[in-house]
Amino acid sequence: MRASTRLIWTVTVLVLAAVSEAVFPLPYIPFLPGSHNRKLGKQEGGKKAGGRRRGGEEAQTNWPGKWELFLPNSGVSAMHAILMPVINQVQFYDATIWRISQIKLPPGVPCHVVDPKINRVDCWAHSVLVDINTGALKPLSLTTDTWCSSGGLTINGTLVSTGGYGGGANTARYLAACPNCQWIEYPQALAAKRWYSTQASLADGKFFVIGGRDALNYEYIPEEGQNNKKLYDSLLLKQTDDPDENNLYPFVWLNTDGNLFIFANNRSVLLSPKTNQVIKEFPQLPGGTRNYPGSGSSALLPIQLYMNNAKVIPADVLVCGGSKQDAYNRAGKKDFEPALQDCARLSINSGKPRWKIEMMPTPRVMSDTVILPNGDVILVNGAKRGCSGWGYGKDPAFAPILYKPRGKRGKRFKELAGSTIPRMYHSIAIALPDGKVLVGGSNTNDGYRYNVEFPTELRVEKFSPPYLDPALANMRPKIVINGTPKQIKYGNIFKVKVELDQKDVTKENLKAHMLAPSFTTHSISMNMRMLLLGVANVNPAGGNSFEIEAAAPPSGNLAPPGYYLLFAVYKGVPSIGEWIQIV
């Protein structure tokens, strides 16, 4: 009798769990050679992949956030954006093919000669540095076309931009992080034309670039000034290339084991950059397409580290929104289908990975996913119908959505205060050191046009997330610059000195986070990465000061070498971030 009762209870609990969590376990679908599943080792304290992070309670607020107009005219429509380390300036650039912007090249900078036969020149700037505090603009000269390109930062903070359109498609460009630096361009650096491709940082700080229109392959970016000649075919891209493409700008995330998670259209694999072999396949994600022009968005969720880490460190990938498989074709006929409303999460180091599905408050396509300093995620920009393309999106998504990765299933999403500016195709969003989100761009037009449904947008906004509620201001830590290192080494213990006027300060509620700046374009945030560092102790340091004893990430698999924003976070309220370099 006891055994049968126990069986009934067990079956009931399993049924309720399956219904409430909307988990979609999918069959293993072999389609690439040399694939196998890996077993996941136990995490410290028995913590499983995707489990809730240990720590103190978060400060509570119902404040929905706040929008502010930061810049009335950015000069260049922000099709691409990245925060440059140390100098705290954001690089915006668009496409040189239009031969127009709203800011001229500075005096003394020669105009770009477009056609020497007819003496046609372009004197407009297509790249600007924007001071994130003052809004001051510095126009820069670009000669190769950056339309729909990719990018990332080197260990020294230099921006490496790859690909683009036409004569820019094989180009690698370099812009160092200094106030007076200029672009250096190498038009033949890449072996294939890279238009709508994705660039990813590897564990050693080098770069991998994959895909692009008619480029169903990948390559490794050579050292500056050299040209690459070697290509590697991608069977994943070949098998996910449908009539509407839907596999451009694939999502690429460096896994905690040093391999690359690659998602295209609705399928994904784990690729070894050492052997160039696919070592793991993942279940197909149902519902539609997630990559350009379907244009969902993705994030590698914050990686939890400890003082003593397990051999296999969990990593969760989030994929949200997108469109149906034929959305691009339909939009061309003025039939704008509703975007996808689901948000899927996958523990890629699990022994039996499966997509776990939740529903967002609203459908979204062309949204930007941003990891916030406290480890939450915000989805901002985009539309509720259609897909990417010139005039192919309708019904702007004005309100951001907050996603709390450590929240309970079914309670992770919250809609926040909305903007009044449509941010459609070619919009951007990036996290800033002060905890705000910089939002710009939107150009659904082939050129700079204003007398249309969605004009070329040059206004730039800042959004303050809920943790910047004025009522929480006294809970905000302040990093003491001269009490915190500027550079750390892998695996070392280092101290972060903070000022905080609170009595209840412990290692359970005062944390240290590291955020890598993302290169953002076309709803993809390349190399966006957050490490939740292991904390040994939080010690009083006199007055209202404390020292966090934190452990640097153990290897480049967890954090590629380079610059990160370091945040102290008290009960979910972050400090202003300070630059720190890991080598």
Automatic annotation (TrEMBL):
CDD domains: E_set_GO_C. Gene3D superfamilies: Galactose oxidase/kelch, beta-propeller, Immunoglobulins. Keywords: Signal. Residues 1-22 form the signal peptide. The keyword Signal applies. Residues 476-582 form the Galactose oxidase-like Early set domain. Residues 39-60 are annotated as: Disordered. The keyword Signal applies. Residues 79-467 form the Glyoxal oxidase N-terminal domain. It comes from the Eukaryota. It holds the Pfam family Glyoxal_oxid_N. SUPFAM superfamilies: E set domains, Galactose oxidase, central domain. PANTHER family: GALACTOSE OXIDASE-LIKE EARLY SET DOMAIN-CONTAINING PROTEIN (PTHR32208:SF91), SECRETED PROTEIN-RELATED (PTHR32208). This is Glyoxal oxidase.
